[in-house]
Design a protein that fits this description.
mainly alpha, MetI-like fold, 10 helices
Length: 272
C-alpha cells in the first residue's frame, strides 16, 4: 500500500505525522514551560531559543509545540463531534424522509444562511470563553456542512436494492443506517472528514486571532499570530512562524485526503 504512495501523499503523511508527534509528546519535547518568560522581547533565534522569543519573552519554539497540541486537539474534537451530529441527522433524513427530512433540511438551510464566522462571533461573545464551549460551537456550525453531504450520499444509497431488501425484511432504521448505508458511504465521508479538519484548524485560528478562540496565556497558533503581529512592522517575523504552521498543516491534510480519495477511486475502478 505505502510503496505506491505518490510524492504529494508522502509529503502530506510526513507533515501530518510530525505535527501529531509534536502534539502528543509536547510535554516531553518542549524546551521550556509554555507560560514561562525566559528571555527578552522578540529575541532573534539563538542556541537557547531556536525560533527566538515572542512579544513578552517566552520561548517561541516551546509555544509552537504546545500550540500544536491545543490547535490539533480542539480542531479534531470539533470535527469528530460535527460528524457525529451531521452524519446521524443526515442519515435519518435520508431514511425517514417526509416531514423529518423537510424539517431537518430547512433548519440546516437556516443555519447555513448565516455566515459561519459572524454566527460564531455572536455566540462566543455571549458565552463563557471555555475550550468546551468553543469546541461545541465549532462542531455545531460545522455539522451543517456534514449534514448536507451525508444526506446527499445516503439518499443515493437508500434507493439501492439491498436497502429495499432490508426494509422488506423488517429491519429498523438503526440497522439500515449502520449496516447498509454507513459502510457504503465511508469513502466520501472519510474524504470530507479530512477536509473538515483542515477547515476547523483555519476556523479556530481565525477565532483566536479575533480574540474569541483559545484564550491567553494558553498557546494556540492563531492567538500566537495575534500576539506577535505588531512585530512585523519592525521586521520581526515571529508572527509568520505560527502562520506558516497553520498553512502547512492544512496543506498536508489536503494532500493526504487527495491521495486517499484517488486511491479509493482507483480501487473501485479496478474492481469494475
Amino acid at each position: 500500500m505505502f510503496c505506491r504512495v505518490p510524492i504529494s501523499g508522502a509529503i502530506g503523511l510526513a507533515g501530518v505525522a510530525i505535527y501529531l508527534f509534536l502534539a502528543i509528546f509536547a510535554p516531553l519535547i518542549a524546551p521550556y514551560p509554555v507560560f514561562e518568560v525566559v528571555g527578552g522581547v522578540w529575541e532573534p533565534p539563538s542556541r537557547s531559543f531556536p525560533l527566538g522569543t515572542d512579544n513578552i519573552g517566552r520561548d517561541l519554539l516551546s509555544r509552537m509545540i504546545w500550540g500544536a497540541q491545543i490547535t490539533i486537539l480542539v480542531a479534531a474534537a470539533a470535527t469528530f463531534i460535527s460528524f457525529i451530529i451531521g452524519v446521524l441527522l443526515g442519515f435519518l433524513a435520508a431514511i425517514l424522509r417526509g416531514w423529518v427530512d423537510q424539517g431537518l433540511s430547512r433548519f440546516n438551510d437556516l443555519l447555513m444562511a448565516i455566515p459561519t464566522l459572524i454566527f460564531a462571533l455572536v455566540v462566543l461573545s455571549v458565552l463563557p470563553t471555555d475550550l468546551y464551549v468553543l469546541i461545541l460551537v465549532m462542531a455545531v456550525l460545522d455539522s451543517t456542512r456534514v449534514y448536507r453531504i451525508s444526506r446527499a450520499v445516503a439518499v443515493d444509497i437508500a434507493v439501492m436494492d439491498y436497502v429495499e431488501a432490508a426494509r422488506l425484511r423488517g429491519e429498523g432504521w438503526r440497522w439500515i443506517m449502520l449496516r447498509e448505508i454507513l459502510p457504503n458511504a465511508l469513502s466520501p465521508l472519510l474524504g470530507e472528514l479530512g477536509l473538515r479538519f483542515a477547515f476547523a484548524v483555519l476556523f479556530l485560528s481565525s477565532l483566536s486571532f479575533l480574540g474569541l478562540g483559545v484564550q491567553p496565556p494558553v498557546a494556540d497558533w492563531g492567538s500566537m499570530v495575534k500576539e506577535n503581529k505588531d512585530g512585523i512592522v519592525f521586521g520581526i517575523g515571529a508572527a509568520l512562524i505560527p502562520g506558516t504552521a497553520i498553512a502547512t498543516l492544512a496543506i498536508c491534510v489536503n494532500l493526504v485526503v487527495d491521495w486517499a480519495l484517488n486511491r479509493t477511486s482507483s480501487l473501485k475502478g479496478g474492481r469494475g
